[in-house]
């Protein structure tokens, strides 16, 4: 009886994402993992509503009307909370990987952002009515820190 040594599965050529220089991660099997470059096209509220409707459709014995009722209750709750918690989105400059680890509001209205990479960035006028890349300024204030875990002013 002849014993055959097992060999690990390795791709014979580099995966397409790594070979072409496209963004993506490579799994040990050699298949590329795509990293989405665009935000999800739905708001959080819409995703919750979709979840409740799908849950009502697949739940055993639950009529769809129950799912619609749950979705309406969730929407009413989100609208009530929207008075207190406002989500703002800001465009990020090309090449900046923003993994915030700390935020601080400065006395002059600017926002300081510590990122895990070890940098502190200042966002000018975060309360502007129409945040676009043209009228939003990111300035690097400090670098070389070791994973800052917060900011205080």
Number of helices: 3
Multimeric organization: single chain
| Largest sheet, strands/sense/barrel | 4 strands, antiparallel
How many domains, as an integer? 2
Give the mean pLDDT. 71
In what order do the strands lie side by side in the largest sheet?
3-4-5-6
The H-and-E topology, N to C, reads as: HEEHHEEEE
Return residue spans where pLDDT drops below 50 for at least 5 consecutive residues: 7-23
Give an overview in words.
By secondary structure, this protein is an alpha+beta fold. The chain has helices at about 15-20, 45-60, 65-80, and strands at about 25, 30-35, 100-105, 110-115, 120-125, 135-140. It has a 4-stranded antiparallel beta sheet, with no helix packed on it. A hairpin with a 5-residue loop joins strand 3 (about 100-105) and strand 4. Helix 2 runs antiparallel to helix 3 (about 65-80). The longest helix is centred in the middle third of the chain and has 18 residues, at about 65-80.
Give a short overview.
With 153 residues, the chain is α+β, with helices and mostly antiparallel strands. It contains 3 helices and 6 strands. Helix 2 packs antiparallel against helix 3 (64-81).
Q: What are the SSEs and their pairings?
A:
Layout: H1 16-20, E1 25-26, E2 32-33, H2 44-58, H3 64-81, E3 100-105, E4 111-115, E5 119-124, E6 137-142
Antiparallel strand pairs: 1-2, 3-4, 4-5, 5-6
Helix pairs in contact: 2-3
Defining key terms:
single chain, four-stranded antiparallel beta sheet, 2 domains, alpha+beta, two-stranded antiparallel sheet, 153 residues, elongated, 18% strand
């Amino acid at each position: 009886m002849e014993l055959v040594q097992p060999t690990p599965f390795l791709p014979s050529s580099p995966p397409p994402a790594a070979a072409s220089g496209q963004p993506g991660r490579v799994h040990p099997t050699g298949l590329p993992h795509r990293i989405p470059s665009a935000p999800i096209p739905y708001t959080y509220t819409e995703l919750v509503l979709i979840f409740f409707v799908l849950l009502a459709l697949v739940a055993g014995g639950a009529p769809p009307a129950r799912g619609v009722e749950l979705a309406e209750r969730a929407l009413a709750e989100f609208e009530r909370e929207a008075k207190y918690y406002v989500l703002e989105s800001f465009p990020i400059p090309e090449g900046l990987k923003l993994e915030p680890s700390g935020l601080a509001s400065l006395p002059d209205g600017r926002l300081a952002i510590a990122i895990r990479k070890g940098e502190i960035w200042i966002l000018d006028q975060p309360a502007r009515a129409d945040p676009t890349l043209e009228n939003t300024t990111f300035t690097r204030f400090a670098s070389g820190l070791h994973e800052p875990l917060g900011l205080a002013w």
